[in-house]
Amino acid sequence: MHPDLTARAAHSAEIRARAAAEMQAIGIDEVFIATLVETFYGRVRAHPELGPVFDARLAGRWDSHMEKMVAFWSSVALRTGAYGGKPVQAHLGIANMTPDLFPQWLALFSETLDAIAPSPAAKSWFMSTADRIARSLTLSLFYNPALDDPARAG
Ligand code: HEM
What is the pTM of this model? Predict the structure, then answer.
């Protein structure tokens, strides 16, 4: 391998190892991520508001969605690079997607973590990360300057 590439590979291996060690210390690993995805989307499907919105888009391909979500959380938590998708694009054109579904998603994620998180630190890590992403998705999908006019405040 070219020396630059060798150095870069060593650098990303180091980043991965550090992330894995930090996450391992609070109980987050590939096994927990798989359990979390399985449990959370089981609850999503049973949720009266969220279930139908997900099902309408994912009928017949739930398995690949779950695999993608495991790859996504592994990439974020463990820096595995397993996920190379585009979350904003993926959420465009979902029928009946509304901003108020995001707080419901977060509430369900929080309840799921209360039930199965390996430690309080693991729960806070997942919640703060999901909260940040939910906020950013909400802005990308629904931001409307007309509703953000300071002249309208109050
Ligand atoms: C109301 C909230 C949400 C709804 C209704 C929703 C719905 C969906 C649906 C239907 C898909 C499948 C898209 C497709 O394959 O056609 C999807 C994909 C995905 N969602 Fe969400 N989602 C929500 C919130 C979130 C949040 C908060 C996160 C991150 C923490 C997230 C991360 C992802 C990712 C990473 C994918 C895979 C994207 C890809 O295909 O690469 N979603 N979501």
Answer: 0.93
Instruction: Report how far residue 140's alpha carbon sits from residue 134's, in angstroms, rounded to the nearest whole number.
Output: 10
pLDDT in tens, 27-39: 999 999 999 999 9
How many Å lie between the centroid of ligand 1 and the Cα of residue 150? 31
What CA–CA distance (Å, rounded) separates 124 from 130?
10
Q: Residues 3-142: name the CATH superfamily.
A: Globins (1.10.490.10)
* Spatial distance between the Cα atoms of 74 and 83, rounded to a whole number of angstroms: 8
Nearest CA to ligand 1 atom 18: 90
**Plot region of 79 (φ>0 → left; ψ -120 to 50 → alpha; else → beta):** left
Which residue in this structure is represented by tokens 């997942």? 126
- Rounded to an integer, the average pLDDT of 8-21 is 95
Task: Report whether residue 134 contacts ligand 1, using a CB cutoff of 6 Å.
Answer: yes
